[in-house]
Amino acid sequence: MRHPDLKLSLGFGFPELVYAGVQGYRNTFQFGAGAGTLPGYNHSIFSAFVQGGYHFGGKARYNLIPPWYTKALLCYGYEKGSTATWYTVFVSPRIGRNMYFGNKAGLDIEIGVSAEIWKKKVERFPSNWNFDFDFPSCSDHIVWILLSDREINKLLFFAGNGMGF
Question: Sign of the CA dihedral 65, 115, 109, 147?
């Protein structure tokens, strides 16, 4: 069993969109950041987010982190359309579960709500049409653990003893 200290995740969710992110762990606390976009769409859409959370409950089969977690996500969104540009900030509290398929790969599934806490719309050609959606929040992640605590300690040992890479 191992304790993941750094994890790469690829996934889809709202408000993250199609994204790549990195998560770090300290005991049962997680923190991370990432960025996403919506490819193939005729707009320019971008998101950047930071997150923090806490793992609890149960025992995992392949690592030392409990599989259940809660987290909060703060996400900045940018969308540039043909008539306007939108800038938004969302907060998204969630609950989720890790499901690892081995020592390195797994899936995270989570659900929560997203609340828009700030929005700015800059219109190019002002119109009278206004139709906004507010979605529930959910996402799936495929994860790959980059370094374990043992591998990080080994790197720090060699670096501290003047044995460069």
Answer: negative
